[in-house]
Amino acid sequence: RLLIVDFGSQVTQLIARRLRELNIYCEIHPYQTLDDDVLRQLAPRAVILSGGPDSVTRPGSPRAPQALFDLGVPVLGICYGQQVMMEQLGGAVEAGHHAEYGRAFVTPAPGHRDDGIFAGLFRDGREEVWMSHGDRVTRLAPGFQVIGTSPNAPFAMIADEARGFYAVQFHPEVHHTPNGRTMLENFVRLAGFTGDWTMAGYRDEAVRRIRDQVGDGRVLCALSGGVDSSVAAALIHEAVGDRLTCVFVDHGLMRQGEADEVVAMFRDHMNLHLIHAEESDRFLSALDGVSDPETKRKTIGRLFIEVFEEKAAQIGGAEFLAQGTLYPDVIESVSFTGGPSVTIKSHHNVGGLPEKMGMKLVEPLRELFKDEVRALGRELGLPDSFIGRHPFPGPGLAIRCPGEITREKLDILRKADAVFIDQIRRHGLYDDIWQAFVAILPVKTVGVMGDGRTYDYACALRAVTSVDGMTADYYPFTHDFLGETATRIINEVKGINRVTYDITSKPPGTIEWE
Ligand code: XMP
């Protein structure tokens, strides 16, 4: 296995993701959990030291166990990891005034060969990389030499090739380092990995971890009907069978026909023990008059917990709670490892429930990105039609209805959304789009239909492409498609007389409207 030592960077998971793409098995361990003994037990074949928000010049800042450097295995340090290596191996790092963020170009040091760590790189003489650091190395540790530099980073790439130690100041794991994957691949090839590990392996490993964690306990799972909770449920079902009970809380904020589909899928197709809680009245009355997005999210989250607790009590409780939390939810919702990330939105599927109910969390997808969850779902035999579904947020249509939520607006929204999705399917575009939906706007506008005046709601179509939901761009529909869709919505959906297309990317927008 390959060990990733996490120093708290927001992009540590991306290292793991890149390695999984290369079919390499890796484990992330926070630096605090590692000591010399644990390290020897893990017996990694190679180690990657992640970036992190701290400064190695600060007393008490994170370090790697010293034994790591005596294991005789290749080590790659990234950003903070590079600085840790220099600090612990006898080099020097300076704080402050060398902050560098964003794009940079690295060129190889004179005389360097184009194989090994450089294989397939520097075709145009330089590589674009993404820098993000405040400190920098000022003196190399013994045995190291510079193998690549950038105008502002004389130690951009350094190596002690005899020991298989490499360190880079930039982040090879992010998209903004276009050939970063090749850099990581070169490192793991040098470390002797062949890349024979697959999603089937991940499934077995995940099942084993769930069994280890759950023992003889019982697990409850909140099913939303989305891909994430479905895959989590299928995986846990495989691990613990009938000791899993799923609760589907129908909050009245589902899309057209969705509740029935979910129940049919899980009860009939997967033979899961499923409780269907029809609670739309409770949710919609609590949301009456609420227009603030965070209040909506929190209200839904609170009621969700209430309903869930009631249903859990009815079946006599359970020790574990399963959630389909994905990695992007983790970093967008909470400050990961105490780092400086801010709360953009309160994703209601993270936090709250387990502490209150005295349950332990089972989150088997916590390390995965959406496309990996889909691959795992396929591996578990879920139908493609289900796995390919666009993501749907826990708070449902509530966050696609800016302003106050009414049953009337929800009905209109459901119909318009169904027409939009039908259009997308008819044109064969569904699988090219990450997520598509309609938002009903809190504004009425004047129109003319036939000989009459209308005064109805405006709506916005939203369709985006994305790889992981963390960044997104609007989908470039043809004008014909947009025109045809607008006509259909206005003709087929009473209550809407104006259709707009949202062409905001993320960032600066978000995918949902709230
Ligand atoms: P945003 O709007 O933050 O959405 O760009 C990114 C992705 O996350 C989904 N989303 C949620 N999913 N609970 C969820 O399970 C939530 O509270 C939630 N909020 C947003 C959103 O649909 C998109 O796919």
From TrEMBL:
The catalytic activity of this protein is classed by the Enzyme Commission as 6.3.5.2
What region holds the GMPS ATP-PPase domain?
197-389
Annotated Gene Ontology MF terms? ATP binding; GMP synthase activity
Q: Name one Pfam family in it.
A: GMP_synt_C
Catalytic machinery residues: 79 (nucleophile), 171, 173
Q: Which UniProt keywords apply?
A: ATP-binding, Glutamine amidotransferase, GMP biosynthesis, Ligase, Nucleotide-binding, Purine biosynthesis
- Which pathway does the protein contribute to? Purine metabolism; GMP biosynthesis; GMP from XMP (L-Gln route): step 1/1
Its domain of life reads Bacteria
Q: Name one GO cellular component term.
A: cytosol
Keyword ATP-binding appears in the UniProt entry = yes
Instruction: State the reactions this protein catalyses.
Output: XMP + L-glutamine + ATP + H2O = GMP + L-glutamate + AMP + diphosphate + 2 H(+)
Q: Which residues bind ATP?
A: 224-230
What function is annotated for this protein?
A: Catalyzes the synthesis of GMP from XMP.
Assembly notes: Homodimer.
Q: Check the record and name the NCBIfam families matching this protein.
A: guaA_Cterm (TIGR00884), guaA_Nterm (TIGR00888), PRK00074.1 (NF000848)
Query: What is the protein's name according to its record?
Result: GMP synthase [glutamine-hydrolyzing]
